Amino acid sequence: MRTVPVSRHRFVFSTHYRTLTQMTQAKASPKEIIGILGGMGPAASAEFYRRIVDIAQHEYGADQDTDFPPMYLYNLPLSGFDETGFRHPDEVKKQLVAGVKKLAASGSDFIVIPCNTVHAFIADMQHAVEVPIVSIIDSVADETAARGLSTVGLLSSESTRRYQLYETALAERNVRVVSANDEEQGIANKIIHKVMAGTQGPTEVSALRTIIERFANEGAQAVILGCTELPLAIQQPDIHLPLLSSTDILAHAALTRVYGPKN
């Protein structure tokens, strides 16, 4: 067996030590506490939390427990709300306001809500608390503009579509939206319900592909998954057109506040 010279061992150890030191030095430290108003639905909220952890690990070098951001997660079992969006808007608004107040009182430095539809009431929620609420709609619209996209397809809940949440935000950034028609929205509603029940599969991927192909034929350069259930039904390897996951974009926006901009 060949003997490795001692000097080689020293070199390998020294190089490894320097690499570990550089990784440690490259870590960012969490600066703020995230308040997460979840439960709309629970699977989407769990995926948002998972993305927070994953991004912290792979983009901010987090490995020890103290490297990860402190978070309060309030899983709100929202009544008056289903896969289409609002069934009883006033009832929903009252619960949302109470929810953000709980998170603010718990010591959250800012609040995120991994549900697009309830951002119809973001002004009411923001008025109820002093801590900032980071808008998922504005975060996605900003990312869309930052990518230089001029036309995007949009998949969302029926209420998000009805309230024109994305259309309004994207128009302010000079981005054209290709929205789902009534038949496609009905399909999207069923898929969202499947995700809520944990029964989505290849059939749902195929149905979303068909809608997205229509968007592409209408000039869409990317597709916004404007419902946080949808990234659980279709992922980028399933389709050629770029997908803009509202879950993923909100997670990045939250961590930028926690750690500061990446170098």
Topology:
Blueprint: H1 6-26, E1 34-38, H2 42-60, E2 71-75, E3 81-82, E4 85-86, H3 89-106, E5 110-112, H4 122-128, E6 133-134, H5 136-146, E7 151-156, H6 158-162, H7 165-171, E8 176-179, H8 182-197, H9 202-217, E9 223-226, E10 243-245, H10 246-259
Parallel strand pairs: 1-2, 1-5, 5-6, 7-8, 7-9, 9-10
Antiparallel strand pairs: 3-4
Helix pairs in contact: 2-10, 3-4, 5-7, 5-10, 8-9
Describe the structure.
51% of the residues lie in helices and 14% in strands. Strands 2-1-5-6 form a 4-stranded parallel β-sheet, sandwiched between helices. Strands 8-7-9-10 form a 4-stranded parallel β-sheet, sandwiched between helices.
